[in-house]
């Protein structure tokens, strides 16, 4: 069961990656990356169970945090150049 | 505390760096750096005496025996480097009293001293460490501080020069890291002595060769060995005078020393010079550097860039000496390393003096000033003659030793390259002399007065170079014991 | 093929393809975002290869700090790359081919990936770090034991590098240079974000403290804690604006915290020397020596790292964020 | 015990279904707004279900607490990020797809 | 050589992509991105040296027998920190260069310097 979940996560990652490459534009990419980020959180959680050491879930917490910060940073900093360039 | 000297001399400058930030005052930060430099020099001197009397010192950091912990090794092969680096730091400290005041504003000066402390500590640590990964860390400490210091240069071109240095330097350091990784993969250790023993026993030649190549290329970048010298002219030419004076005497020299150390005590001369064609490549690169860089120097219009290109040529000489792989060659390389450090430091210091007095180091601005600034230009000429290798200057002693080592090894083409390079050096020094004495002055503005501290440093360095030329006993004995320690595995 | 191999291969392929796309993208914002993505993949690979501490650091540094810095710089400069002139490709291809060829040559002698019989695993160091350390130091996380005790000097060097970087950024971009302050743009208009961020902040800070003190038993330690702490303030600064963050955490206070941590580390080393041991020999800290003294030393070191790293990373962010676009 | 395992398997399967369908939507839908609609819902829900499924397999309280924290975190930050993204895209004028237009 | 060498091949490819970007691109920020990729792949290479098949993270626990090697992880922790420090300094320099030159393209910088100084370096 866990193996199947892992496979699904990897497939999802690949699909999100395709959207991140195709774009078009910034927002589609942010969306894809945000989704990819959630999948890495799941990856960490699931791989802990898959390989028998689920104690390291702290990393998952951190991933969730930095993923959020990265999205905020993209929004805040792109927003700025656009208003400044105008 | 005496037992802790190997670590103290690295720790003093590193510990002084945060102090400089905290003090925030120019004069106090200067004092801290001076003390750090003097402290390191004192440690280096005591260490040199101890090593000469009792042989190599091993210091296990944290009390963990190598290869489990990190080890510092002070031996005949690195005491000359320690003396040169900490001596140059003292000279730079005194020199900076006058120089930094004219180039850097009050609020940034303490930060410059912070970086000088860090660079000093990094270079000393790189010299004494007996662990390859620790060497990488110290290399990065000194490099990162150097990038920041170069960026402080007065012209805007300092910024791209610093960036270029940063990118090239980081690629070089990463190459070193790849080399360390490959060596680690086939041995499982990072301690230099342990590495040497296991590399000799390992039967994975291909990884070993590649490891050596990566480490050598990476260090050659840091040492500005031709043709990997692209960062050096900009970095030395644009840095503040104190910084170029200090760096010219130390940073590439330490990289060359590490190259030597790894060649002879880790990879082994048999592998490097016997199995791999590193010796021939080194001689080729050294010979080419000597000729090509000297030729480029002849066409420079900026005194500091001219000196920087001349440094690349001189690095070629040192590299050629090392690449011979013989005791005479290595000893000559060390001798030239010491002498060139003194000469080039005095020249960059004099260039800084010119910059302070005229506001420019363009050759065109020097026209006809030989008579108005006789002492400054006299210093440049004496040191310049040392660069050419005219007896009885220090440069002559080094070049003579190198020439005899080359003859002994039958490397005639390299010898010819050296002679051509010396003639070219005569050309560019001659050009400075011609401009300063035989051209009509371009401006009527009177040069401003020279800070005593700067003049003093220039003349002390020039005097040292002359003394080393007249009586080469001290540097020669240091160089010989270094070669002895390296080639006979005295680690 | 084992499950591990499939996962490993997939992630490595994703990483390589991402790198290729980044190399070809001329829109730099997009390239920076994909760099963040590649960093996520790298961190996942670290987890997969059992390097949990490294994964922790890579996530915090690569996805958090690096991305924010890159995007911040892009906001200050142009975000589109010029076309690379054709003549630049040739030397690059030559160098890359040579280096790659050398690596492929070397790889033929490299031990099989995952082999328990490689020189790395057979070396006596392995036994000492994994098992003897339990008696000598008594810290279950052997990475912490090696980092903070066996190879503490590397860690000191690492902290010096962080310190140097912080000082360098201060020198180049700090209030000392004559750059003007930018207007206080922020994301204040989003109420949801404000509420969520205020909820998250205390949690992030507690999490940082937990990571700092839990480093002996699980992934974590001073460096990771410092970066998480800084990430918290980055979030705060992004949402509430720089001025508010600097009111909470004045730059002057940060400026004195930076040298404090490094001073603490160096001071610890000096104390061990004064007590008659060698530099950073924690065994001298307590008369009984042994694991208790080691614990004391490691804890001090972790706290020192945490202080300096948090202060440096936060002030680097402030320095970049406080810069006003010039055009 | 068996009941727990079955429940866990059901939750994991449901979560897997959610994340895969979300990813397919992300790739196949014609414009940004439809894509964010697809991912916004499935991402949090799928992740939540998978984490709950894992929680049922957990034997130690340390791992359980961490799973709950991650869950809480994702549930709070996920929708926030989606909300911000959609809002910012609207403001920046990311175009909306109409029937018959090419995908963007 | 064995079937597990795919790890090295992919990592080396990654390294070369990074190195290529550093050398060929003239945009300073792209160069820094390339440098990051180059370094990250070297870090992964180190970590791959410590991995043991069926091993686990080197955090000692009574239930686990095989551990991956902690030393490469320690080294890479240090190296990551050095990497981010270099990135921060490089980016700070890029910002200053943009303020001084109005560009972050190497090509344009050189042209603008030659316009002003008329001096070859």
TrEMBL record, chain A:
This is pH regulation protein F. Pfam families: MrpF_PhaF (PF04066). Belongs to the CPA3 antiporters (TC 2.A.63) subunit F family. PANTHER family: NA(+)/H(+) ANTIPORTER SUBUNIT F1, NA(+)_H(+) ANTIPORTER SUBUNIT F. One of its GO terms (molecular function) is sodium:proton antiporter activity. It is found in: Cell membrane. It comes from the Bacteria. It is a multi-pass membrane protein.
Automatic annotation (TrEMBL), chain B:
GO terms for molecular function: NADH dehydrogenase (ubiquinone) activity. It is a multi-pass membrane protein. Belongs to the CPA3 antiporters (TC 2.A.63) subunit D family. This is Monovalent cation/H+ antiporter subunit D family protein. InterPro entries: CPA3_Na-H_Antiporter_D, NADH_UbQ_OxRdtase, ND/Mrp_TM. One of its GO terms (cellular component) is plasma membrane. Residues 130-424 form the NADH:quinone oxidoreductase/Mrp antiporter transmembrane domain. It is found in: Cell membrane; Membrane. Keywords: Cell membrane, Membrane, Transmembrane, Transmembrane helix. It comes from the Bacteria. Signal peptide: none annotated. The chain crosses the membrane at residues 6-23, 30-52, 72-98, 110-129, 165-187, 207-233, 254-275, 281-303, 315-335, 341-361, 373-390, 410-429, 450-470. One of its GO terms (biological process) is ATP synthesis coupled electron transport.
TrEMBL record, chain C:
Its main location: membrane. Residues 14-78 form the MrpA C-terminal/MbhD domain. InterPro entries: CPA3_antiporter_subunitB (IPR050622), MnhB (IPR007182), MrpA_C/MbhD (IPR025383), Nuo/plastoQ_OxRdtase_6_NuoJ (IPR042106). Belongs to the CPA3 antiporters (TC 2.A.63) subunit B family. Keywords: Cell membrane, Membrane, Transmembrane, Transmembrane helix. It is a multi-pass membrane protein. Residues 192-314 form the Na+/H+ antiporter MnhB subunit-related protein domain. This is DUF4040 domain-containing protein. The keyword Membrane applies. It is found in: Cell membrane. The chain crosses the membrane at residues 6-25, 32-49, 55-77, 89-107, 156-174, 195-213, 225-242, 254-276, 296-321. Signal peptide: none annotated.
TrEMBL record, chain E:
Its main location: membrane. The keyword Iron does not apply. Gene3D superfamilies: 1.10.287.3510. It is a multi-pass membrane protein. The chain crosses the membrane at residues 6-23, 70-95. It is found in: Cell membrane. Keywords: Cell membrane, Membrane, Transmembrane, Transmembrane helix. The keyword Transport does not apply. One of its GO terms (cellular component) is plasma membrane. Belongs to the CPA3 antiporters (TC 2.A.63) subunit C family. This is Na+/H+ antiporter subunit C. It comes from Nonomuraea longispora.
């Amino acid at each position: 069961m866990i193996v199947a979940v892992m496979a699904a996560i990897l497939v999802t990652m690949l699909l999100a990656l395709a959207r991140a490459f195709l774009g078009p534009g910034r927002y589609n990419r942010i969306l894809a990356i945000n989704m990819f980020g959630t999948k890495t959180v799941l990856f960490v959680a699931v791989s802990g169970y898959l390989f028998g050491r689920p104690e390291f879930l702290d990393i998952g917490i951190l991933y969730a945090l930095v993923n959020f910060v990265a999205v905020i940073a993209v929004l805040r900093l792109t927003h700025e150049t656009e208003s400044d360039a105008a | 505390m005496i037992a802790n000297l190997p670590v103290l001399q690295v720790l003093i400058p590193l510990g002084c760096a945060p102090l400089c930030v905290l003090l925030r005052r120019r004069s106090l930060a200067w004092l801290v750096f001076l003390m750090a430099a003097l402290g390191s020099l004192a440690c280096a001197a005591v260490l040199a005496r101890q090593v000469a009397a009792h042989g190599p010192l091993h210091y296990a950091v944290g009390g963990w025996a190598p290869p489990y912990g990190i080890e510092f090794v002070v031996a005949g092969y690195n005491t000359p480097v320690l003396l040169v680096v900490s001596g140059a730091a003292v000279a730079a400290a005194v020199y900076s009293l006058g120089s930094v005041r004219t180039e850097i504003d009050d609020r940034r000066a303490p930060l410059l001293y912070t970086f000088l402390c860090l660079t000093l500590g990094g270079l000393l640590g790189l010299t004494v460490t007996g662990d390859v990964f620790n060497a990488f860390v110290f290399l990065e400490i000194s490099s990162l501080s150097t990038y920041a210091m170069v960026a402080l240069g007065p012209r805007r071109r300092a910024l791209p020069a610093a960036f270029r240095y940063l990118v090239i330097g980081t690629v070089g350091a990463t190459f070193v890291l790849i080399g360390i990784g490959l060596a680690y993969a086939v041995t499982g250790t990072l301690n230099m002595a342990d590495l040497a023993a296991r590399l000799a026993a390992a039967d994975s030649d291909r990884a070993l060769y590649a490891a050596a190549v990566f480490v050598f290329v990476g260090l050659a970048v840091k040492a500005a060995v031709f043709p990997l010298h692209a960062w050096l002219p900009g970095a030395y030419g644009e840095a503040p005078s104190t910084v170029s004076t200090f760096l010219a005497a130390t940073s590439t020299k330490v990289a060359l020393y590490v190259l030597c150390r790894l060649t002879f005590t880790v990879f082994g001369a048999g592998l490097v010079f016997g199995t791999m064609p590193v010796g021939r490549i080194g001689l080729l690169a050294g010979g080419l550097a000597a000729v090509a860089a000297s030729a480029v120097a002849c066409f420079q219009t900026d005194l500091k860039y001219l000196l920087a290109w001349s440094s690349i040529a001189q690095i070629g000489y040192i590299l050629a000496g090392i690449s011979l792989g013989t005791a005479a060659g290595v000893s000559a390389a060390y001798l030239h390393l010491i002498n060139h450090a003194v000469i080039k430091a005095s020249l960059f210091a004099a260039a800084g003096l010119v910059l302070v007095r005229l506001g420019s180091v363009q050759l065109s601005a020097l026209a006809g000033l030989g008579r108005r600034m006789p002492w400054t230009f006299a210093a440049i000429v004496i040191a310049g003659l040392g660069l050419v290798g005219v007896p009885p200057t220090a440069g002559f002693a080094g070049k003579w030793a190198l020439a005899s080592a080359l003859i002994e090894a039958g490397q005639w083409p390299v010898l010819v390259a050296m002679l051509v390079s010396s003639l070219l050096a005569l050309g560019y020094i001659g050009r400075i002399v011609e401009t300063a004495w035989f051209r009509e002055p371009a401006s009527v503005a009177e040069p401003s007065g020279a800070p005593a501290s700067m003049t003093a440093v220039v003349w002390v360095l020039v005097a040292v170079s002359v003394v080393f030329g007249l009586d080469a006993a001290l540097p020669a004995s240091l160089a010989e014991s270094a070669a002895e320690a390296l080639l006979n595995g005295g680690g | 093929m084992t499950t591990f191999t499939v996962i490993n291969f997939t992630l490595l392929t994703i990483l390589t393809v991402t790198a290729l796309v980044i190399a070809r993208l001329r829109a730099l914002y997009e390239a920076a975002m994909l760099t963040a993505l590649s960093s996520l993949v790298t961190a996942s690979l670290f987890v997969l290869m059992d390097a949990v501490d490294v994964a922790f650091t890579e996530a915090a540094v690569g996805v958090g700090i690096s991305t924010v810095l890159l995007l911040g710089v892009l906001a200050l400069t142009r975000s589109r790359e010029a076309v690379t002139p054709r003549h630049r490709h040739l030397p690059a291809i030559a160098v890359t081919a040579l280096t790659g060829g050398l690596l492929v040559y070397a790889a033929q002698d490299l031990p099989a990936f995952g082999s328990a019989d490689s020189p790395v695993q057979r070396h006596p160091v392995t036994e000492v770090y994994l098992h003897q350390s339990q008696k000598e130091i008594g810290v279950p996380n052997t990475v912490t034991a090696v980092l903070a005790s066996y190879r503490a000097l590397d860690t000191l060097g690492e902290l010096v590098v962080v310190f140097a970087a912080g000082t360098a950024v201060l020198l180049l971009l700090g209030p000392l240079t004559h750059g003007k302050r930018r207007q206080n743009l922020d994301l204040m208009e989003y109420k949801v974000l404000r509420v969520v961020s205020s909820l998250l902040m205390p949690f992030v800070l507690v999490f940082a403290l937990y990571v700092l003190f839990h480093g002996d038993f699980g992934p974590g330690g001073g460096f990771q804690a410092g970066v998480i702490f800084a990430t918290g303030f980055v979030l705060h600064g992004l949402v509430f604006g720089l001025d508010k963050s600097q009111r909470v955490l004045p730059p002057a206070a940060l400026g004195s915290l930076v040298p404090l941590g490094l001073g603490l580390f160096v001071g610890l080393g000096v104390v061990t020397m004064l007590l008659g041991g060698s530099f950073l020999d924690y065994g001298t800290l307590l008369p009984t020596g042994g694991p208790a003294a080691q614990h004391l030393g490691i804890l001090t070191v972790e706290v020192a790292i945490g202080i300096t790293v948090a202060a440096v990373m936060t002030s680097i962010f402030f320095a970049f964020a406080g810069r006003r676009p010039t055009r | 015990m068996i009941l727990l395992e079955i429940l866990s398997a059901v939750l994991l399967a449901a979560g897997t279904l959610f994340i895969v369908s979300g990813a397919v939507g992300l790739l196949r839908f014609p414009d940004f707004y439809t894509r964010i609609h697809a991912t916004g819902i499935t991402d949090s829900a799928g992740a939540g279900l998978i984490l709950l499924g894992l929680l049922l397999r957990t034997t130690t309280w340390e791992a359980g607490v961490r799973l709950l924290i991650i869950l809480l975190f994702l549930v709070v930050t996920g929708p926030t990020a989606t909300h911000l993204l959609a809002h910012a895209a609207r403001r920046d004028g990311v175009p909306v797809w109409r029937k018959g237009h090419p995908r963007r | 050589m064995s079937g597990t060498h795919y790890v090295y091949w992919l990592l080396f490819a990654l390294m070369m992509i990074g190195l290529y970007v550093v050398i060929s691109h003239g945009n300073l920020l792209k160069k820094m991105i390339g440098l990051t990729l180059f370094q990250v792949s070297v870090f992964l290479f180190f970590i791959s040296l410590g991995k043991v098949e069926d091993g686990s993270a080197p955090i000692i626990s009574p239930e686990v027998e095989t551990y991956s090697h902690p030393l490469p992880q320690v080294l890479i922790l240090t190296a990551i920190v050095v990497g981010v420090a270099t990135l921060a300094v490089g980016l700070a320099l890029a910002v200053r260069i943009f303020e001084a030159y109005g560009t972050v393209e190497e090509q344009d910088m050189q042209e603008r310097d030659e316009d002003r100084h008329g001096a070859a370096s």
